[in-house]
Amino acid sequence: MIRLRPLVRFLALLMPALIVLHSAQAQPARAEPERIRVAIAPPEVLDLRPSPDTGDDNESGLARMLFEIVVEELERAGLQVDRIAGVPVGTPELPAPVEESGYRFAIAAYIMRDHGRYGIGLNVYHTADRYVVTSRSAFGTSELALSRAITRELQNLPQALREHRAAERVEREAAVRSITFATSGNDVAITLSDGRSLHPSETGRVTIAEVPYRIGQTIGFTVERPGYYPHTGTHRIRRTEETVVVPPLTRRTRFSLSAASFPAYVQGFTAVSRWYPAPDEAFFELSVGASRVGESRSLAKDIEKELDELEGGAVGAFRFTDLAFAFGAYPFVSREQPVRPGLQSGAGVMHATGDGWEETIPYLAPLNGFVSFGRGRVRARLVSSVRYTLGGDVLDRVWIAADGPLPYGRIEVAYTW
What we know:
The protein is an alpha+beta fold. Helix content is 21%, strand content 43%. The chain has an eight-stranded antiparallel beta barrel with strand order 14-15-16-17-18-19-20-25. Strand 15 and strand 16 form a beta hairpin. The mean pLDDT is 80.
């Protein structure tokens, strides 16, 4: 007969052990930290304030003993230490074994002797860039005190080197390998904020490979192109191989030639030329127009009234020419805007020739508004042409302002350069 109480007691004692064993098997083994390989040379002795009772034999023996302590502590802390020939204490001219063997770190050791008090120092060099990654130093009034100080100083050295390598890795991953500028033409000059000048190829692209930038930094640049306004901008870098699309530049306008039409003179044509002494800001304008006005004419109401009062009744068809000069400006919005209102004023002369009569009428155009559309070479304009005549046999000092419900003005299509 099986006795249950001892069996239950046995299982109660066995179960915790089985659980612990299962947990230990289930947990993955912790990876040992990577052993960093370093090169180290025997130390140099720096005699700061020599003591008269210190001999060369004692000095060399002390140096060998301290060197062995340092190597032992470095290996105990987790480094793979290779002994090599001398590495100078100053910025090292590393010996061939260091460079050829691919060491990332080399340690230069030195012993300081100061009137009977000894110390040891270590400079850890980055072999590729020849700079000091970290330093350690220990002092003691006796060999035992110095040995303990060395142990304290070197126990965290491997961790400092691992952190340095991790920082190098982060910096390497964040480094920008190339920046490409994409432009709309190959006659563009790009100047970076660091002073470098770039010139795109026939495809309108230029790439720089050696850049001192990191992801997240902002690069500044200025773009120039003949016949255009320069553009200064910035770009935030988001990739290791970044592309900067240069925005289209605003064309610089010095001259303009327009074909225009007056709704009041549907059987006519007007040519308008402009010169911009201040590009895209202010201009002088010269316009010349010729029209044929039929018997069923629809002119500005003041002209109609005066013509109808001529002796002999209503005037039939006649020819009409117009010569005007004006000065205008864009005082309201910047040149980068596609729609730009402005103001202009000027003077001119109209000449009408009919059946048995002709009349020359000078006038002033004191203030007229206009709106310009577009930023390219081809642009459109709507221009009002309110005028005040200066007198004549037919028209005697009247305002010419409207043609029925339509304002008295012209519509233009201009080519600029």
